[in-house]
Amino acid sequence: MAGEKKEIAMKRIALLLTLAVTLMIAGCVPSLNPLYTEKDLLFDKALVGVWSDNDDSKETWAFERSGEKGYKLVYSADGKAGEFEVYLLKLGETLFLDLYPDDAAFKEINRNDFYKSHFLPTHTFAKVTQIEPSLQMAFLNPDWLKEFLEQSPKAIGHEKTGDRIVLTASTKELQKFVLDHVSTKNAFGDEPSNLKRIKSKP
């Protein structure tokens, strides 16, 4: 009986992880836990505004203040938008963003509550190299992570779902891992995004 319960629990976790992956920005590594603790958070008003790689781009990042230290982000691409809760944090000398899907978005999904209860929102995070005059950030590189974990599978807690990796490590373990690799070649991609502010307010 205990074995059956464990197997059912593992299958449920696998399903949740699979669903989590489908909700994330393409090319990002989802994490079950945040990268921050309360003491790591800071607020920089310079992040507020609408950012894009050019004036005519259909991809925009619109940040506005939410609470004392948080942001609301509306990420838009190809006419579709997604809302996120975002926190800016500092680990050592490096800034990061932690993104988490806004709960309101799940309420608007045209599915029944039982179906929606099977979704598992996850965190993603990006290294921020500067905010002004342009916003430069780079997400943890899934291709690098996959290759790294093939060589060092115990380096960080994770689960595999298909070809994707979902981080299961604690916040403390995540922080150590990103700091260990903050300067590792390709860990955060080849080049950061280079977004310019196109509006001072969303």
Would you mind describing this structure in some detail?
- With 202 residues, the chain is α+β, with helices and mostly antiparallel strands.
- The chain has one domain (2-199).
- The chain has five helices and eleven strands.
- It has helices spanning 2-22, 103-108, 113-116, 142-151, 171-180, and strands spanning 41-42, 49-52, 60-66, 70-77, 80-91, 94-101, 124-130, 134-139, 158-161, 164-167, 195-199.
- The strands form two sheets. An eight-stranded antiparallel beta barrel has the order 2-3-4-5-6-7-8-11. Strands 9-10 form a two-stranded antiparallel ribbon.
- The longest helix has 21 residues, at 2-22.
- It is globular, with a radius of gyration of 18 Å.
- The termini are far apart.
Brief summary of the model shown:
With 202 residues, the chain is an alpha+beta fold.
Give me the number of helical elements: 5
Using only C-alpha atoms, the radius of gyration works out to 18 Å
- The fraction of residues assigned to DSSP E strands is 25-35%
Sheet with the most strands: spatial strand order: 2-3-4-5-6-7-8-11
End-to-end Cα distance: 55 Å
Please count the beta strands (DSSP E, at least 2 residues each).
11
| Average predicted confidence as pLDDT | 85
Globular, elongated, flat, extended or rod-shaped: what is the shape? globular
Question: Residue share in helices?
Answer: 25-40%
Low-confidence parts: 11-25
Structural class: alpha+beta
Biggest sheet architecture: 8 strands, antiparallel, barrel
Whole-number total of structural domains: 1
- Helix-strand sequence: HEEEEEEHHEEHEEHE
